[in-house]
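Long-time lurker, first post. I've been practising inverse folding by hand and with some scripts of my own, and I keep getting stuck on stretches where the structure tokens seem ambiguous. Below is the full token string for one chain I'm working on. Before anyone asks, I'm not after the true native sequence, just a reasonable design that respects the backbone. If someone could post their per-position residues I'd love to compare against what I wrote down in my notebook.
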């Protein structure tokens, strides 16, 4: 077909000359009359010796029957055999091809119709306009519209309705509205016309205008809404998250008796599910009399999207029980596989995979992509790889899913191999690929070659993005990679160099500062974001609460807790998973800030809990010396059906270590692999070394050091950490020979390690071997190594007050020492005696008493007592110390809590000590 320009009168803008993307060979002809003559057609076995009018009626009726039944081949054959055809014949066959979606054929028929001297009637014109709508060709649509006006047919509601739909589908909403506004008053009683204009506004996401038209339609009283009207309005309410309007429409649906319609019920299920009203969605679903596959898909997807994955799987099984009367389709499987992935439920995943194979759906790309994700999240990356290799056609999502799967299963090397394979097959990576591969790089061991690899990938991305620049999505991934690789300065450069920052960018920078030991900068980023009036999301608050926990700032954490509640209340309905994430961060923050009671209270009020919720409480109790509470929570966790992870067992082993529970610790270590299919990491071995070392069982501790060293590569520092833990235990128990041996092992690989030199020097000092101690100290000076200065701090009146041993820099130093002396006198009267053995200096007893008497934590507590006085009404004193508390200070704190009637919490480098009425939560075992 050639290209044609037509002068057409278009209602909106006068006369246009518009080229058509598709083809019209000639202008519409003038109206002509056809002289049919006498025709006798005798199909097989039928005698048609009737008038020409009867023959036309018969063939047109038969033609219409073929079209309505979808047998377009028969219809076309009959149409070609008809020697004479009228407007009805042409309208019928054009309608058939329009319904079939063969829009180009429709316009071929139009050209043939012109050649016979006929013009389209209103029914043919409606089909032609629908065909131009299907082609998304507004030029042909405008030509048809202009010709219709010039032909003098006048206004026909069927044609006007088709025009509204055509303009809307072609993106010309204003033209669609002009057509609607130009119809006569009599046409406003036509329901399909109203449906078309309302659907047009819904299509263009103009929700308010759609609501206004619906209200106008109802108030006019000329026409009643139909199920199609309600379907459009429910769609509008769903996308606009207008709960109130949606419920009103639901009421109207019930009142008008349209609720029993399956399509209407499906729309309402989707509406309630997307508006986070899952109970209502479930009720509507159960009330649908005839449930279709779409009904089941809607409710399964609704439950999955609202965090009710177990319910979604249960609904899928109910659907399967219906047998062959209702078979799940591709959409069903995608939704239920997503639920299985979120739960990491391997057995249901295998069952679904088997059904996919029986249904011959496994080779479908999107299904296989979901299977790859499911198996990866279930820690069966080998099965995911098999699905990947068997898939005949791999799209971008397939490659990304497999790369992400390897990353999630801690196989970064295989991520890199697959990335190279992807490039070798000329598959161009996208933003999601970069995110996955950069995440894999950041999880590799932090050696120079891997940091260099991350920079190389960064350079590759920059070279690929010379023309269009690096997208915000990819920049975020680069920023995160540098932050996780402890290259925070490079992360800062990426952040500052980003031309556009989204919410993830700010969150990533906040999280980067927090995990790189700069929680103060994390909070500064939050405040900077607040000053710029940028939006917060649940992740922002999770990160800032985590930063407060790392900063051990109880007062600041409480303030951010209040701000979090205020913002969540302002968001309306929040996704259950997002609320769960915030609550988990709050539990962790309170436990890390020394208020395990607040953490426990928050935990008890949570409606939903996951493995992170339970683990946060188990770990919190462990660090507060409440070992039996920790073990009890583990039992409750199992009863609740929550599977523990490796971090859970770290908390349990820490609890056992801090309480000297040897048998229990051995049991939990053994059960990791035996009962839970979890392989102990180097951290778990370190906990076992600590467990036996604290208890003085050095033979067992040494066995675990040697066993762990065979499992982990010493080059990566694995076995080094075990020797360091053993050295710490030797220092605590003054085990000179084994301690020196452990120190030598460490210094072979890390000759510049300051802590090892300090512990070794202290070990010699404790044994009175002053020359050896001095030699180690001299060696430190030669190497330029410096001892970490012991310091303690606390918060008072929104300020942080820092103290060091023998501090004379504080503005209130005279009052502090006066208060310390007063407390010492009262403690001595109740039985306190300074433990001078913790003064590791070769001086006399009085000097040793003076040294231990002005340790930083004692000064901090004295300052707090000076501020508020004694008595529990003044609250808990919270002190943070960067080193381990010594035995003398620990003893002094017990006496002070009693004589001053104050609760004192001290967090040292290992754990919390809660002093009350002369007793410590650790039971003097730390």
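-- Answer (accepted) --
I ran through it position by position. Result:
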């Amino acid at each position: 077909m050639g290209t044609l320009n037509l002068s057409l009168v278009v209602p909106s803008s006068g006369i246009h000359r518009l080229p058509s993307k598709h083809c019209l060979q000639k202008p519409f002809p003038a109206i002509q009359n056809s002289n049919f003559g006498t025709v006798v057609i005798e199909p097989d076995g039928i005698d048609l010796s009737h008038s020409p009018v009867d023959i036309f009626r018969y063939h047109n009726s038969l033609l219409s029957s073929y079209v309505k039944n979808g047998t377009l081949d028969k219809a076309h054959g009959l149409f070609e055999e008809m020697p004479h055809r009228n407007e009805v014949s042409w309208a019928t066959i054009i309608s058939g091809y329009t319904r079939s979606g063969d829009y180009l054929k429709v316009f071929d028929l139009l050209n043939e119709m012109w050649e016979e001297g006929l013009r389209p009637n209103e029914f043919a014109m409606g089909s032609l306009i629908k065909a131009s709508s299907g082609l998304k060709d507004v030029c042909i649509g405008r030509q048809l519209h202009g010709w219709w006006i010039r032909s003098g047919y006048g206004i026909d509601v069927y044609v006007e309705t088709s025009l509204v739909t055509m303009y809307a589908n072609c993106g010309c909403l204003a033209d669609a509205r002009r057509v609607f506004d130009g119809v006569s008053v009599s046409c406003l009683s036509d329901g399909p016309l109203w449906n078309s204009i309302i659907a047009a506004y819904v299509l263009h996401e103009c929700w308010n205008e759609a609501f206004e038209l619906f209200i106008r339609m109802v108030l006019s009283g000329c026409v009643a809404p139909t199920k199609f009207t309600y379907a459009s309005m429910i769609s509008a309410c769903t996308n606009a998250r207008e709960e109130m309007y949606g419920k009103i429409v639901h009421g109207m649906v019930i009142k008008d008796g349209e609720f029993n319609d399956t399509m209407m019920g499906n729309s309402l299920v989707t509406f309630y599910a997307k508006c986070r009203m899952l109970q209502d969605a479930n009720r509507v679903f159960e009330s649908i009399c005839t449930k279709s596959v779409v009904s089941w898909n809607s409710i399964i997807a609704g439950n999955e999207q609202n965090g009710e994955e177990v319910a979604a799987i249960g609904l899928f099984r109910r659907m399967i029980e219906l047998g062959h009367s209702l078979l799940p389709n591709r959409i069903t499987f995608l939704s239920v596989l997503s639920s299985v992935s979120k739960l990491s439920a391997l057995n249901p995943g295998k069952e679904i995979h088997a059904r996919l194979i029986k249904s011959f759906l496994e080779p479908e790309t999107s299904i296989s992509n979901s299977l790859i994700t499911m198996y990866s999240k279930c820690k069966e990356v080998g099965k995911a790889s098999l699905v990947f290799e068997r898939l005949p056609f791999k799209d971008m999502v397939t490659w990304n899913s497999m790369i992400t799967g390897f990353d999630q299963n801690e196989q970064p090397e295989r991520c890199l191999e697959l990335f190279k394979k992807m490039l070798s097959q000329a598959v161009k990576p996208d933003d999601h690929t970069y995110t996955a591969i950069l995440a894999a790089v950041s999880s590799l061991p932090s050696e120079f070659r891997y940091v260099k690899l991350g920079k190389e990938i960064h350079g590759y991305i920059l070279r690929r993005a010379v023309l269009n620049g690096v997208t915000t999505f990819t920049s975020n991934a680069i920023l995160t990679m540098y932050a996780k690789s402890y290259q925070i300065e490079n992360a800062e450069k990426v952040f500052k160099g980003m031309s556009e920052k989204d919410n993830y960018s700010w969150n990533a920078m906040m999280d980067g500062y927090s995990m790189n030991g700069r929680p103060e900068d994390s909070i500064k980023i939050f405040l900077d974001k607040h000053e710029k009036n940028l939006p917060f999301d649940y992740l922002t608050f999770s990160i800032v609460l985590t930063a407060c926990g790392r900063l051990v700032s109880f007062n600041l954490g409480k303030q951010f807790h209040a701000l979090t509640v205020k913002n969540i209340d302002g968001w309306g309905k929040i996704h259950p998973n997002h609320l769960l994430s915030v609550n988990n961060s709050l539990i962790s923050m309170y436990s890390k800030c020394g208020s395990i009671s607040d953490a426990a209270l928050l935990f008890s009020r949570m409606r939903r809990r996951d493995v992170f919720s339970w683990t946060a409480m188990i770990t919190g109790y462990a660090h507060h010396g409440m070992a039996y509470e920790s073990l009890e929570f583990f039992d409750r966790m199992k009863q609740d059906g929550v599977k523990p992870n490796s971090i859970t067992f770290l908390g349990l082993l820490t609890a056992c270590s801090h309480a000297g529970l040897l048998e229990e610790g051995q049991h939990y270590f053994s059960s990791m692999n035996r009962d839970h299919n979890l392989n102990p990491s180097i951290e778990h071995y370190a906990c076992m070394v600590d467990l036996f070392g604290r208890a003085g069982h050095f033979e067992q501790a040494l066995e675990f050091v040697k066993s762990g060293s065979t499992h982990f590569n010493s080059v990566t520092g694995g076995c080094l950490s075990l020797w360091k833990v053993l050295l710490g235990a030797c220092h605590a128990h003054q085990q000179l020979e084994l301690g020196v041996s452990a120190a030598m092992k460490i210094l072979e690989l890390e000759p510049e390690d300051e802590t090892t030199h300090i512990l070794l020097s202290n070990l010699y000092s404790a044994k009175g071997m002053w020359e050896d101690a001095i030699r180690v100290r001299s060696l430190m000076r030669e190497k330029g190594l410096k001892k970490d200065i012991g310091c303690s701090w606390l918060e008072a009146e929104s300020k942080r007050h820092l103290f060091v041993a023998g501090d004379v820099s504080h503005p209130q130093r005279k009052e502090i020492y006066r208060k310390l002396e007063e407390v010492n006198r009262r403690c001595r009267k109740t039985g306190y005696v300074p433990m001078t053995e913790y003064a590791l200096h070769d001086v006399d007893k009085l000097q040793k008493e003076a040294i231990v008497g002005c340790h930083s934590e004692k000064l901090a507590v004295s300052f707090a007592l000076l501020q508020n006085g004694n008595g529990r009404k003044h609250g808990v004193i919270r002190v943070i110390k960067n080193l381990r508390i010594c035995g003398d200070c620990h003893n002094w704190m017990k006496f002070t809590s009693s004589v001053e009637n104050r609760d004192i919490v001290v967090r040292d480098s290992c754990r919390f000590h809660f002093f009350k009425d002369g007793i410590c939560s650790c039971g003097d075992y730390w």
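A couple of notes from the structure itself: The CA atoms of residues 304 and 852 lie 60 Å apart. The first strand starts at residue 5 and ends at 10. Happy to go over any region you disagree with.
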